[in-house]
């Protein structure tokens, strides 16, 4: 029974077709519990994305990973890398991560500056670490509120991160246990990420 439960999330994900677009909700973003007594030093280093909600900014690409580096001045540098189809060329974008003032918890704001014409745009986005053990897995959530035709809606993002490029079944089980604690998080839109031959791309 235990082995069946471990394999179930993988089989479940692979049996459903890919969902295009992004995950939307009505009204304000839900207030979801995050990791308490957050240890920034232990969170630093490299993480691999193994599953996520569908996102327009990730299409069509693979081999997603992120590197976090804490500088002496307290600024956290972020390097997000991905490999694009069909060229299989790797691209890295640079940004910063800062903890939300107040309680020492896993709420951050992430910023990837970009240019629009001659203007440099800084747009901070919530980056909430819902749960992590620092050495094997992390669940990250983000939500952005929008006004569409006078109606308040929200766009939701979810990432399963691991320290290993190979997805271990016990790690996947821990990730699903983590999101199962928040009924506001739907599991049906989660898609597995592809890391096949990622170490051979350039």
From TrEMBL:
Protein name: Lipocalin/cytosolic fatty-acid binding domain-containing protein
Keyword set includes Signal: yes
Domain spans labelled Lipocalin/cytosolic fatty-acid binding: 39-173
UniProtKB keywords: Disulfide bond, Signal
Taxonomy, superkingdom: Eukaryota
SUPFAM superfamilies registered for this protein in UniProt: Lipocalins (SSF50814)
Gene source species: Henosepilachna vigintioctopunctata
GO cellular component: cytoplasm
Keyword presence, Signal: yes
InterPro entries: Calycin, Invtbrt_color, Lipocln_cytosolic_FA-bd_dom
Alphabetized GO MF terms: pigment binding
Signal sequence extent: 1-21
Chain ranges passing through the membrane: none
GO biological process: lipid metabolic process; response to reactive oxygen species
């Amino acid at each position: 029974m235990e082995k069946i439960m471990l394999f179930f999330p993988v089989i479940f994900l692979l049996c459903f077709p890919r969902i295009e677009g992004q995950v939307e909700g009505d009204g304000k973003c839900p207030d979801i519990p995050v990791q308490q007594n957050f240890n920034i030093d232990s969170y630093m280093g490299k993480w691999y994305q193994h599953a996520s909600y569908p996102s327009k900014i990730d299409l069509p690409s693979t081999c997603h990973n992120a590197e976090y580096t804490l500088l002496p001045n307290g600024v956290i540098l972020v390097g997000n890398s991905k490999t694009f189809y069909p060229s299989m060329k790797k691209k890295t974008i640079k940004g910063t991560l800062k903890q939300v003032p107040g309680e020492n918890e896993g709420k951050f704001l992430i910023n990837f500056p970009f240019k629009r014409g001659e203007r440099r745009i800084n747009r901070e986005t919530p980056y909430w670490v819902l749960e992590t053990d620092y050495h094997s897995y992390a669940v990250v959530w983000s939500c952005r509120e929008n006004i569409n035709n006078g109606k308040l809606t929200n766009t939701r993002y979810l990432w399963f991160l691991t320290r290993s490029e190979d997805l271990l079944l016990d790690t996947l089980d821990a990730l699903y246990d983590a999101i199962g604690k928040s009924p506001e998080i739907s599991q049906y839109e989660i898609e597995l990420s592809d890391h096949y031959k990622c170490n051979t791309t350039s």
